[in-house]
Amino acid sequence: xxxxxxxxxxxxxxxxxxxxxxxxxxxxxxxxxxxxxxxxxxxxxxxxxxxxxxxxxxxxxxxxxxxxxxxxxxxxxxxxxxxxxxxxxxxxxxxxxxxxxxxxxxxxxxxxxxxxxxxxxxxxxxxxxxxxxxxxxxxxxxxxxxxxxxxxxxxxxxxxxxxxxxxxxxxxxxxxxxxxxxxxxxxxxxxxxxxxxxxxxxxxxxxxxxxxxxxxxxxxxxxxxxxxxxxxxxxxxxxxxxxxxxxxxxxxxxxxxxxxxxxxxxxxxxxxxxxxxxxxxxxxxxxxxxxxxxxxxxxxxxxxxxxxxxxxxxxxxxxxxxxxxxxxxxxxxxxxxxxxxxxxxxxxxxxxxxxxxxxxxxxxxxxxxxxxxxxxxxxxxxxxxxxxxxxxxxxxxxxxxxxxxxxxxxxxxxxxxxxxxxxxxxxxxxxxxxxxxxxxxxxxxxxxxxxxxxxx
Amino acid sequence: xxxxxxxxxxxxxxxxxxxxxxxxxxxxxxxxxxxxxxxxxxxxxxxxxxxxxxxxxxxxxxxxxxxxxxxxxxxxxxxxxxxxxxxxxxxxxxxxxxxxxxxxxxxxxxxxxxxxxxxxxxxxxxxxxxxxxxxxxxxxxxxxxxxxxxxxxxxxxxxxxxxxxxxxxxxxxxxxxxxxxxxxxxxxxxxxxxxxxxxxxxxxxxxxxxxxxxxxxxxxxxxxxxxxxxxxxxxxxxxxxxxxxxxxxxxxxxxxxxxxxxxxxxxxxxxxxxxxxxxxxxxxxxxxxxxxxxxxxxxxxxxxxxxxxxxxxxxxxxxxxxxxxxxxxxxxxxxxxxxxxxxxxxxxxxxxxxxxxxxxxxxxxxxxxxxxxxxxxxxxxxxxxxxxxxxxxxxxxxxxxxxxxxxxxxxxxxxxxxxxxxxxxxxxxxxxxxxxxxxxxxxxxxxxxxxxxxxx
Lengths: 456, 456
Description:
With 456 residues, chain A is an alpha+beta fold. Helix content of chain A is 40%, strand content 20%.
């Protein structure tokens, strides 16, 4: 094998990309901790029954499945293998799959650890997920979700905390043109009630979900095709609006939804949220958006999606409330709400808009350059002392030509080179070369440590 | 589905386990950075050709393979499917697999990114790997490797750096009864030369690898069975010894290996290493071990394994030098050396020996307890101010009975509870309850921040 390549839709991350990714991950992790969320991790591999049936039919086809070990055809062979098709065979030969999101494994975790956790449970989880999707710009087969969920409390205070986490995170990352779109599945049900289309709720939400891409015309055409009447479409139109979240807009919608107790309940939840956001100075960058529907069927209350203006990019974070996700795993009656940051989209956005702070692109370090073989022991000893003072450094592995060593120092973005030859050893003094300015000076190791300690 | 369970050999990590794991990961990551290693990450999924043939026959059977999407039986059906067996079918329906270690993906990364990296390249990588092994105590199907490798330099200074990383890491983790066993594949070749068994080198190393478990008798029996003579076994016996690494023991071995130029070369490499370790105060906890062979066939120079006395556990870290791993991927001539910490074994060891510092087991936080509904807005505002001062906190989501709120505070190991009722709001003063001592006092929010800032 001579030309290795990456599996389609996956990526390597080199040192520079890692520094930038760590900036995103650590900024958001600090905020999760600041809101008293606790870390958990779940395995990449789950039994396939844990995953199937949770993400809709499309989700099931996008699961990566693990081939069973051993002679997996053994039992199958007795049936007529020649008549078999792949989708029939799959469940018999692949009993595990890769994690598709972090919410379903979290629900499984809660159901399995009910006696170990305290309700309401606030957890964060920052791990990759895998989907066998067609790779394209901004869409990968392995990508990272940074999730925070609160389970076991119905209070809208939880939604308010999550919105404030959005604010803190985007401020921390330097993303200022974000808009948090918010709606409520009960409000959508109320709209269906107004239209007299309760039975066609999922048809309605599927069409609304496309509003961004196909506009009102497109949504209307789809609904008419699926059996909605012109009159129903006329009734729907006033609900397809977006405006900054405020008590005023909610009052207006409450009037529009007065025939639907469920719709009113949805608006009241948003009023609660509005109150809590007002109390915590979080009522900004938030748009109440009647067109927001969210594909995942497990949502039952507030739903969110964060977009960045002029980014030409889909949502960079999303979430919502789900009332019965642990119920699937035998633990009913726990309402949860959560958000998920798409780390890879955030990375791509920050890269495109040049938002990464310049100081994070290279990790600081010092290169010791032995000018002759017998300087090496001295360099090793000096490097040891620097490291004891938490100053990252390395010794060039061999007394090769100084030009080559300095080229290497520049290539690895070392901040300083320390030249060590016979003179330096005899005088017990180092020659310190600043690789940015080119300036060189003599310095004792003690003074070097003093000078660098605040730098590193 | 009512009783969810984990895929065999995998684990969830709850908050307490995560805090302990983070202690291990961050301790070792800080040391990697201190030695000027740069982070990279590679994908969990690799094309199967990247993985197969690198880990021996047993390794190939332990690979987790991903079932292809779509109608994978389509082309296969035209052949006689009834005659097919699983191992024949597998390559046709599973073109990707899960990462088995971090070294092979790293070699692939280097070959694919040769123009972006500076040689010698020092990288660290901390990611999970997957093996379809039979799960047992201390052996998982998903486990974490924390690797540091230097590629593109033959100097034994690199080995010395890695041994010093071992020292720093085990000191940092509080593991003091560690022994670094060290040998050299060239020394083993030299031993084969002395025995006149050059052709049976791999038979010899496979037998030696079991010395720990089956002892001299067992090794001898295996060798006799495989065609070695009694005389050869007699010649072998003096080499099966272990002693603290020193110039003296190396001199002794040099004499014993004088018939083998390769063996002498191996000893000279160890002498170099000894010199560099001596210069950097790293010549301790290291045992030259003639029985150490290391299974992976890609090793060509020094090899290492770290054991902990009285732990009843296999090695917790290991590594070695490989001369042609990037050659497999079309980039010959690069020698590399690396080490790998087994994070899960280290965790199990530290747990068994009670080595985790007590302060890391719970993350610090404060719970605001609203005594009535109208206190909530005040709590949210106060929580916001604390978070702005990097003091992690949360507000109990609802003004339920104070007993219930305080029980929750204890359950989540909150350090303080802040009680907020009408009196507190009117006076603009908080009631702070220390949950360890039970002491309660009144305090202004400014004084609270001053008091807690050094605590968090």
